[in-house]
Every structure is written in C-alpha cells, then in structure tokens.
Specification:
The structure holds 2 protein chains of 2 kinds. By secondary structure, chain A is mostly helical. Chain A has one domain: MetI-like fold. Chain A has 10 helices and no strands. In chain A, helix 4 packs across helix 6 and helix 6 packs antiparallel against helix 8. Chain A is globular, with a radius of gyration of 22 Å. Chain B is globular. Chain B has a domain of 104 residues: Rossmann fold (3-Layer(aba) Sandwich), CATH 3.40.50. Helices cover 36% and strands 27% of the residues of chain B. Chain B is built from 7 helices and 9 strands; from the N terminus they run βββαββαααβαβαββα. Chain B is an alpha/beta fold. Classes of the chains: A mainly alpha, B alpha/beta.
Chain lengths: 249, 222
Amino acid sequence: MMNSIMRNKGKFFVILFWILAWEIGSLIIDQEIYLPSPHAAFSALINLLTSEETYITIFYSTYRTLAGFFLSCLSGIMLGIVCGIRKPLYDLFNPLIIIMRTVPVMSIIIIAIMWFKDNNVPIFVAFLMCFPIIWTNTVTGIRSTDVKLLEMCQVYKIKKLRVIKSVYLYSSLPYIQAGMISALGIGWKVTSAAEVLSLPKYSIGRFLYDSKVYLEIPDLFAWTIIIISLSFLFEGLLKFIFRSGDQHD
Amino acid sequence: MIKLVHAGKKFDDLVLLKDFNISFEKNKITCLFGPSGVGKTTIANIVAGIVPLDEGLVEGVDNSLFSYVFQEPRLLKWYSVYENMDFVLKDVYKDEKRVKIIDTYLEMVELSQYKNYKIDALSGGMAQRVSLARAFAYPSHILIMDEPFKGFDFKLKNEMISLFKRMWKTSQRTVIFITHDVEEAIDLSHMIYTLKNRPVEIIDIIIVNNNREEIKNKLLSL
C-alpha cells in the first residue's frame, strides 16, 4: 500500500516535471502557433469536453479503431494459427504479410480512399496495419508450443481441433496478448491518420485537419490529448480483461 | 505378442536399428535396459507409432491404443489435475462414465483432494502421479514408461514403484518399461532385455525370478 502510494507520488512528479518543461518551452518560444502553453491546450480541452459533438466524434472514432482492431484480431489469430501449424501455408502468406508491414501507411490510406466510402477507410487502414502484428505474434506463439506436449497428444490420439484449442492456443496466448496490446496502440494512431485524409463526418481526424486549416493549434493539442487518453484507457481495459481471464482459468 | 520384425531405422547417417527383432508379451511388463542413447526410446516410439520405420514391420499393434508415461509429466499447466485427465479421456468415454473413471484413478494415486489444483501448484512427484493416473485411466492396450522415475529420490521412487505395481494389478496391460536403473528394472519387470551397441543389439534376455542378486550382477556387469 505504502509502496504504491510512493510510486504514484513519483509518477505524479514525473508528469508535473514534463508539463513544467512544456510550459517553459512555450514561454521561451512565445508563439501559440508553434507551441501553445499547457494552459491554452487544457482550456481548449475543457472547452471541447463541454460540447456534445466532441462525444459523438469520440464515439465514432473509437468505433472505427475498435472495428479495425477486432477485424485484425479475428483474422490475424485464425490465419496465424493455421500458418503456425502448417509450414507451406506460412510460406504462402509470409511474403504478403511482409509487404503489408513495409508499405507506407499513407499509400494504403490513399488507395483505401479510392476503394471505400470515407467512413470505412480508417477501419480498413487500421485493420491492415494491425493484422501483420497479430499474425506474426500468433505464428511465433504457435511455434513456441512444446513439441513434447504435442507428442503426448499424438499418443493419446487427441482430435486436432481439441489440440488447437487446448494446447496451441494456450501456449501462444502470451504472444497473442502482447500482439493485441501493441496493435491496439498502433490502431489509434493510424485511424486518426486515415481520418485526417479521408475526413469522415464525425471523426477526430477531421478536427485535427480543421485545427490545422484554421490555425487553432491549442485545439490540435487538445484532440491529441484526447487520442492519447483514449489509447491509454483502452490499453488498460485490454490488460484488465487479460488479467481477469488469467485468474479465471 | 507384439513384435518388431527386421526393423531398420536411420536418423540421417546414424543407423540406430538394423535388422532388429524383439517381442513383447501381452499383459506382461517388459523392460528395455541399457545405456542412454542406445535407442530404447526409439524402439518404444516405433511400437507406439510415433516414429515410422524405414524397414521391417511392427506386428500385433493393429487397433491398439497406447498410453505413455514420459520422463517429464507432460501435463497442460494451464489446466487443473482433473481437466488434464479429462483432456485425454474426452473422446473415449461419455460424460458420466468419464467423471467416475477420473475420480477412481485420482483416488488410486491419492490425489483426489488436489483435483482442482493447477499443475504448477503440484510437486514433481505429484505431477508424475497425475501422469501415471492419466496413463492407466486411458483404456490403452499398451503402456510405455520411459524412465518415469528418473531424478526422484530413493524414497519417492519406491513409493512410485509400489503405486505402479498396485495400479498394474487392478488394470493389467502390456507394459514396455525403459530404464537404466538396475533396482527399478528388477523390481518392476517380468522380463528384461539388455541392449547395447550401435546399431542396437540384444545382449541378454533375463526372466526375472527370485534370484535378485544374480540378476543384479548380470545387469551391473554390462
């Protein structure tokens, strides 16, 4: 108890230090358009939080991020499992995944704008960016499965589907969870980026874009703070779900 | 009778079996005794169908079910003791019967009160007892034991051996028992094959009787 209070106290001072550094930086630069003061950013934030539109915007952006994230989890885990077990399938898909991993986000966003309605562009982009992470982690996890346990399953003639569920999946769970956590963080970033270019009606990206056009830099900072907070919130939620899952087993 | 006939097996350039013949009597405990790396496990794995033969054939194992007690317990550590038993029996027994059988065998290895424990919470000896219960609860015709008591201290080993004997008496089946421990071999087996060389050869076939000292000297002189 005492320890955690001390640690939180430490964290608090670290945050305070960096906000102070920000304040001093903005005082030295003294031009809101380059670096607004923390005070300006936070009052812009409070201003945003009093508007209903902000919450609708947050809701839609969250929906897009999570939709892309869940799609990539579902397909990444399923495809990762079969590719992890069957080497020829891995060889077939690996080049595609490598390309997905190296193609610049911007190219994908622009192509997606040509293909989809503006609302779905960020979902598709988030999916495409998260999928390789989940897939790679799942494959690594499946391959880390103890061969000795698989031999045991072979002796006792356990059906393949049950081996996948009870042995492969549990063995790779830590890898899949780590992959999901990093994919979710990236999901928030690329969703906002895709929103800036595709400009769906309700989206954080559109507000980021507007703040650039109208030179409302404190707003830009305020929206950025919102994205960071959302990202932290959902990462915490995900970790909480994983932890309570572990305890239930 | 289970037989390997003119068996040949190579791993890359390493010739492990060449024109090798051996037989295992039904419902008896046969021991493969010999130094590490001679190919005892390979012989057992060939009988169990885990390792395919390059030449020759395995007779008398058609439609046989196998169970295995490995050197390590090989349990699923994310499951409880009960769930580990359930995992191998699920495709074999219907729900009610399965519950009964698992309870019976956990009782035999004196782990009834631990049935909801996770594997991580068990000692090495307890985990190996679960592995033994799993092997006997599974309706196998042939049970392979690959140095299952290795690394146990004297007392624990003796407990495990008498436990195994009790279980085998109530639920007899063909056992292939692999060891390089003289006492274990004599205590458990009806018959001992002593193996040596590469490719592996049968040096001696010993029928275990009351003349322990003589057998012991024979095994030690190898």
